[in-house]
Amino acid sequence: MISKMETHRAHRTRLRSRSALVGGGVAVAVGALLAPLAAAPAASAAPPAGEVRHPVDYVDPLIGSAGGGNTYPGANVPFGMIAWSPTSTAGDQTNTAAANGYSYHTTRTRGFSLTHVNGAGCHPGAAGDVPIMPFVGQVDTSPTADTKDQKYAAGFSHDQEKAEPGHYRVGLDSGAVADLAVSERAGVADFSFPRGAPAHLLFRTSNSLNGSENAHIEIDARRRKVTGWVLTGAFCGRRANGGENNRTTYYRLHFSASFDRAFSTVGTWENDRLAAGATTADGGEGYLTGADRAGRGSGGYVGFDTTRDTDVHMRLGISYVSLADAEANLRAEIAPRASVAEVAADGRAAWDRKLRAVRVSGGSEPRRTAFYTALYHALQQPNLISDTDGRYPGMDGTPHRLERGQKAQYSNFSGWDQYRAQVQLLALLQPRVAGDFAQSLLNFARQNGGVWDRWVHISGATHVMTGDPSAATLATFYAMGVRNFDAEGAFDSLYRQATVPHPDGLSDKGCPGQCEGQRPNLAQYLASGYAAQDVCHCWGGAAETLEDSVADDALARWARLLGRAEEAEELGARGGYWRNVFNPDATATAGSVQARNRDGSWVTPFDPASDRGFAQGSAATYTWMVPQDVQGLAEAMGGRETAAARLDGFFHKPDGSWSVRGGDPLRYDPTNEPGIHAPWLYNALGQPWKTQETVRQIVDTVYGTGPSGLPGNDDLGTMSAWYVFAALGIYPQAPGRAEALLTGPLFPRAVIAPAGWRRALTIAAPEASDSAFYVAGVRVNGKPHDTSWLDGSFLRGGGSLSFDLAGRPATGWATDPDRLPR
Question: pTM (2 decimals)?
Fold first, then answer.
């Protein structure tokens, strides 16, 4: 008769053969157990155009885990609730080595946390809830008292680490091994320990990345279960620019973990007090850091006898509503005897189905790896927060159920970032998810007194960044054909937010980085036509004006599609308010966007390299942030030729060399969002060949493979979505629109065909190569196409797009002044 543990071992053996993981029994040293990971053969050469490998094979979750990308390598599935990944430590239990809990260059961990957010920039990020640590040794002091993570943490090396979509495995220097796989709301784990050594699992219930208000754990030895919750939130709560406003609680995560074998020991801790044999504990850490938080918190541990059996199998479910829902989620998603191998295979298949929405052919192996990993990162969010029974936590602090026709409630909306590229990719590839996401944001707004927050985490309004990105996002969804949400209700709500002042708009609470007003000092804005720097109650008056102009233009376009002519005219005029902060005499040689005071005076002294009046960017960068009216911007600068020459200086140093890697406030910054559309502005200026060479320069030098393969914070898939569009040769023209701008594709062929599409979108560029990226001609559905942009019907309806590429600029293509992008 085969024991349960032997069955688990057999499943793991099959998994190792699938993933090139080879190892012996758990009694051998961890180095011998996992050493073949380092010796795995290199990926084969690129397959022919027929495509013989699965897209998921190209994904490397470690891309972006260094260099400020803030990605995480752990197990997840598309849009899932659970994301099981390491929390690294650099010697401070109240902090972590990177903004999202994992830094490639910090190879020491204090546990494997159940929730993460991809690429968030606020250090230490968000979530990272309930780290679970396999610990080899005696638990004889409180783990919370180990404030420097000297005892209850362990190192590892990357040759003992394997990260792939839906699955994460690592061998620790202590001899323990963690093998993790997940479904949408649940997961399974195999933990292995050295034979005969003290073996424990620590549940650090209070140790979320940002701390916690409270936490609770219960250990039921008879039923071999550990359950509990953490009450937390505080996204961006430690930032200096208004973060104190966000040191608040807004969600509770429940978990239920069950085991296949009995506990040999149990215990809990509260602050510095260890209670061996105890089965319950409570206590949070607070939301500060360092000495103000060190030594606070609670958790519990369970131990296992490893004299004969060194493996522990755990099944776990989570919920933001209740413990009962966490257990129901687990029952619904993972079979009682499912192994890590089986769950990992399901997760891999789920990812492959989503990634198959875009099939590329040709190109080099590194190009494919960068592309499919970018697509993987772009499709990690939004994230489920509704349970299998349809309940979810509302922004009003009470549980709610899905609306009629809604399939899921989603959250984690980094609006200021995502509205520029990620939401367009979501609408293109996953329109059903986009619609449910739109409905989710409307649900939250209705629960939040009609206020649409610009950065939503779980069920919390965090107010992070500036502008009104919800308006731009939902208008974009509608323009791209997404219809499965209450579009009229959403428009009415967003229109009200854009036209009726709210008391929060006069508050400076949280400013500048997390101002509560979503349309700050709206009455003044409407009266003046710009956000006045001295009374705007916002991050920066010039930035706020540009952001609101983009949002209002998007709302105007949506209003036209809805047949709302009066609102369209009103909002369309407001889409041009950017002109009110463009000072034609900002410097002795050129005009620029510049902040203004309420009395109409310009904020001085003015320096185009300064961020005064702006948010995370300089005047030099923000001056280009008028994607809705590039022709108007060019006119304000003195004409298209003058504007193009200025744009040349934005991407090049005075000596003519490229300046696209960031670090110069007068030039392009690929690490942050306000200027990421700028390479495509040449299309509207009548010089599309410069878009082609600029985009390719950025693709070749700023993005890549390896841990530092992203230019900066992935910002919930935004930077990755930028790369996906650049690789395909298309880019969203402006928020609230479905038109696309063109550049030379990376791959000879790409087929965009999400599940349910009636007609694929095929992109052919047979000559595509590292040297042939200039567009000499384009055909749409077989007919010559002489503009550098596509009508929105193409992305909505599909068709064929063919490029003729060359190694030299084709300076006559798509330059007719009457047919430039508007």
Answer: 0.93
